[in-house]
Amino acid sequence: MNSTLNNYSLLVFLGAVWGASFVAIKFCNFMFNPIEIGFFRTFIGAIFLLIGVLYRAGNPQLFKENTFTYAIIGLFNAAIPFTLIPYGLLTLPSNIGVIIMSANPFLALILAHYFTDDEKLNLRKMIGTIIGFSGVVFAVGVQVFVTDISSFIGALAIYLAGCSYVVSNLIIRKVSNLPSDMVTMNTLAWGSIWLIPLMLLFAEPINYEMNLTAISALFYLGIIPTGLAFSLRQILIRTAGTTFMMQVAYLIPVFGIFYGWALMNEPLKFSLLIGVILVVIGIAISRLQVESNTGI
Q1: DSSP annotation string for 206-275
Q2: Where are the domains of the chain?
Q3: pLDDT digit string (tens) for 172-205?
């Protein structure tokens, strides 16, 4: 019971942290381009975790064992999504972005079914996923349709970022037995390395207009949603599985709306309450322990 409670508590915490990250990315876009946001986010996160690993007298294992695995995870877990999401949010509001990201559990269900031995697809999980996604739609609203080519490209970028996260969640299981902070540090370091060539091509430091809000938001992205939360994400994947962890995508937009109400005086709609109820029901159904062998 304690383990189950810890898993749900961690899921809610990650939803709260990553919900705030969409707001932070919008602030970062005031000063940095998507490539710069992706690079600095991975670099700051890697340095933060390196300090943590060294503080606990751990072995960073940088460029040693599992280097190829770290490089692949760094590509799909950091370099790709950390640049595609800021790019998508250049043309889309954050509530549309989180709606698109909330489709990730569908892909996670399918891939986990074929590439894992202990997370097979069944009717119960499918029903829970559909209900949870419906909750997101109620919470954020139904204005999820793009109206021009730029917003369509932005939506596609965010969707591909979500797909990239799903792939990385499956690969990270190969090193799930190792310390989570060390693994995350190595993957973020590789995320930075992947982005160095793009930084040389597209970084524009000469055009920076100093914005303390954007800089603060960038450090927040690197330390909390990236360094800390990604380490905790690995723990959650290890203890509860990929499909359970991906249900955080339902909680992110709910917290995003809450932040808009608490910090930006946006109206708190009744639809949010309906959405929260559906999200909770969806997660509960997908996690029910079924005693029979019906596969439901």
Answers
A1: GG----HHHHHHHHHHIIIIIIIHHHHHHHHHHHH-HHHHHTHHHHHHHHHHHHHHHHH-----HHHHHH
A2: 21-122+142-240
A3: 877 877 888 888 899 999 999 999 999 999 988 7
